[in-house]
Amino acid sequence: MKQTIDLVIFGGTGDLAQRKLLPSLWRLYNAGQLDKVRRIIALGRSANDSQAYRTRICEQISGASESDRFLEKLEYLGLDATQTADFEALATLLNTPAPAEQTVFYLATAPALYGAICENLRGSGVLANNARVVLEKPIGNDLASCQEINQRVLAVFSERDVFRIDHYLGKETVQNLLALRFGNSLFDPVWNSHHVDNIQITVAESIGVEGRGDFYAQTGALRDMVQNHILQVLCLVAMEPPASLEADTIRDEKLKVLRALTPITADNAKKNTVRGQYDDGAINGQPVRGFLEEGGFAEATNTETFVALRAGVHNWRWINVPIYLRTGKRLAERYSEIVVEFKKHPFSLFADDQNHTPNKLVINIQPEESITLHTVIKKPGLSRGIKLEPVELTLTADADKKQHYEAYERLLLDVFAGDQTLFMRGDEVEAAWRWIDGIIQAWQDVDLGVKTYPAGTMGPAAAQALTERDGRSWYD
Ligand code: BG6
Asked: Starting at the edge strand that comes first in sequence, how are the strands of the sheet with 131-135 ordered?
């Protein structure tokens, strides 16, 4: 196949490039999916040459060896993204021997650099060729910084060439939500406030903040996970059926959900939100340190490593349905899951009916990818009367048809193909920040501090109280 794409990675020596992007590219290459990519040009500030960089990447990718042909595609160029003059060397490289048909600029740097990088790219003349830009999250730290990034990027690229990544949209089960909801006739009639009692979205991590203490101290779980991953998942759960699978049609529907999120304000923040921070504890029987010690903080900080919210979507379909969201670091185990809990049927026919929980649809995003409908049937046998027994109906592809891939593999292929369906449009990201900024403001107004929780648990006790106050409980 003709080689037509140059992929340029800003932040080529950074954590994301080394842990996620290059291993994903390597797997795509081995699966024969990277034929169109002529070169992968990694940019970084450190002095490296291409050979040293290849060796470094090879060591990072488990299973890779020095003789892998994939490594031949890799080149390294030292570049300081704030130095306009450095972009001349990049332009020369991209034009040698001739420009590729398509150049993809992947910005995996601090978001504060996105505007300057785009402006420097324009100044260097390299955008005369077909170009796309990929922006990693976070897009800013609040609405104002996000708007500034969007404006500066869109002054250089048109929206159809901007790919804002939220890697949760690249996960198989997250995309499966579209197939489940709109490829079956069974679910839509009950997918509303008449039949759904509550929705829960949990993204639990067992890792701590690792080496990112400083970044995390300024970010916190609300900005790091809810603003993007959790709200994107919520959009796919709550949105109206789109008129087509066109990227913008889907994104229009997601935007409506984000705009309909019930504001969390100073009046209700204490009731509807819980902030937590992990303390010493144990994960899988191993002792782990609390956030302050792990992050190297001399004094207490008010950073939340856990957040639980009682959210809502204020529209015709979802009015009065609580949507419980929670995420945290150093929780008991790593899993991400959506639970749609249906209302109990209105009349009990069976003596042991009350012992059984209402129907639930449990959508596991990771580590397992599965969709399970919790129902009851008759307990088999000759005993008198009808006794109920829980059964789980599993809606999962046959094991031999399952293909495991990393979210980044899927998303990189979509960028190369120019398909924006699984990427966030600028107005979506801004709408998400608007809601998040309101929560942060409310926290400041009521001075809501963090409650500590031992590492290895599911967050502070107040998170349990958040659902129990409503007569519900988290599905754990
Ligand atoms: C990132 C967050 O966006 O997502 C990290 O910045 C988090 O803090 C990560 O650990 C979780 O991703 P995944 O795919 O491992 O669930």
From this structure: 74-78, 37-44, 5-10, 102-107, 131-135, 162-164
Q: What is the pLDDT of residue 2?
A: 57
Residue-wise pLDDT for 340-397, tens only, equals: 999 999 999 998 888 888 999 999 999 999 999 999 999 999 988 899 999 999 998 8
**167, 194, 195, 229: which is the annotated catalytic residue?**
229
By most ligand atoms within 8 Å of CB, the mutation choice from 167, 173, 201, 369 for ligand 1 is: 167
What are the tokens at 458?
């599911």
Spatial separation of the C-alpha atoms in residues 100 and 2, rounded to whole Å? 10
d(CA 362, CA 333): 17
Identify any residues that bridge with 286 across adjacent strands, giving them in sequence order: 283
Cβ–Cβ < 8 Å for 418, 243: no
CA dist 317 to 6, 193, 303, 314, 338, Å?
45, 6, 35, 8, 18
Integer Cα distance of 290 and 304 in angstroms: 12
The C-alpha atoms of residue 193 and residue 210 are separated, in whole angstroms, by 40
Q: How far apart are CA 476 and CA 474, in angstroms?
A: 6
Left if phi > 0, otherwise alpha if psi is -120 to 50, otherwise beta: which for 210?
left
CA–CA separation, 438 and 444 (whole Å): 10
Q: Is the confidence at residue 212, as pLDDT, over 50?
A: yes
**CB within 8 A of 105, min separation 6: which ones?**
8, 10, 117, 121, 131, 132, 133, 134
pLDDT classification of 233: cutoffs 50, 70, 90: very high
Amino acid 438: pLDDT: 98
Identify whether the C-beta of residue 68 lies closer than 8 Å to the C-beta of residue 54. Answer: no
Neighbouring C-beta atoms of residue 212, cutoff 10 Å: 13
Tokens of residue 235, six digits = 């959009």
Is 343 within 8 Å of 195 (Cβ atoms)? Answer: yes
Kindly state if the Cβ of 166 falls inside 6 Å of ligand 1.
no
Q: Does 167 participate in catalysis according to the annotation?
A: no
370-385 b/e with 16+ CB inside 10 Å = b? bbbbbebeeeeeeeee
